[in-house]
Amino acid sequence: MNAPARPSLPRGLYVLCDDTVRPELPLREKAAGLLAGGARVVQLRMKRTPLREALAAAREVVAACRRAGAVCLVNDRVDLALLSGAHGVHVGDEDLPAEEARALLGPEALVGVTVRGLEDAKAARAAGADYVGLGPVFGTTTKQVNAPVLGLGGFAAVVRTSPLPVVGIGGVKLENIAELAATGAHGGAVASDVLLAEDLAERVRRLSAAFDRGAQGASLVGGDV
Fold first, then answer.
1. So where does 4-amino-2-methyl-5-(diphosphooxymethyl)pyrimidine get bound (predicted)?
2. Contact, 187 vs 11, CB < 8 A?
3. 224 labelled as ligand-binding?
4. 46 is in an annotated binding site
5. Binding residue per annotation — 1?
6. Residue 76 annotated as part of some ligand binding site
7. 93 is in an annotated binding site
8. Among 91, 23, 25, 35, which residue's Cα sits nearest to residue 63?
């Protein structure tokens, strides 16, 4: 019997449902707001939530994403991704290697990897990743990163030659997401700019529209990938 088909990563806005930003708001409520705005990719990042609570939250958020037709990825924790039925996982520099995540989750799961440059992107592809999160593109306060800021020029140079779809990470917000999209990026990952908004759904709609405008401009001048 054939294995289930691996989902594709939707192009555009990639939102983070993060327990470190606006921690007083439960993760399920954050996810509900994001999905109400039409979010198509939700990464669930739980750095402060105790493990049992994290598993319960992951199951709730994954179920909500599936009902909404959105892809849900779990940050770092391959075990939670597996137990919650998430579409996949995103791993970073200090997490389980991509090839091990792939071995545990199987061929039908999406695996994303945080990278800092082109050589890292090539290594991620060899390890079985489906896409990379490249950055920081801009300065960010959501997460402390021991890597230099790429800027749009450095980011665009990697996007043009990356063997995998590239999602821009680090400091992406409404004011710059269209510029990021214009580089030909597959997506733009946003955390604080959406989670700190008074109306999460409306912020998602505005961010998505801005990304789409930037991506359309890139395709018109032949810069899309």
1. 43-47, 75, 114, 143
2. yes
3. no
4. yes
5. no
6. yes
7. no
8. 35
CB count within 10 Å of CB 198 equals 6
What CA–CA distances, in Å, run from 178 to 172, 182, 200?
A: 10, 6, 19
CATH code that applies to domain 12-219: 3.20.20.70
- Alpha carbon 33 to its chain centroid, in Å, reads 17
Q: Which residue do the tokens 């389980």 mark?
A: 96
* The model's pTM: 0.93
The answer to whether residues 34 and 204 touch, using CB atoms and an 8 Å cutoff, is yes
45 is in an annotated binding site: yes
43 is in an annotated binding site: yes
Which DSSP category does 136 fall into? Answer: -
- pLDDT by residue (tens digit) across 145-203? 778 999 999 999 999 999 999 999 999 999 999 999 999 999 999 999 999 999 999 99
Check whether 216 is labelled as a binding-site residue. Answer: no
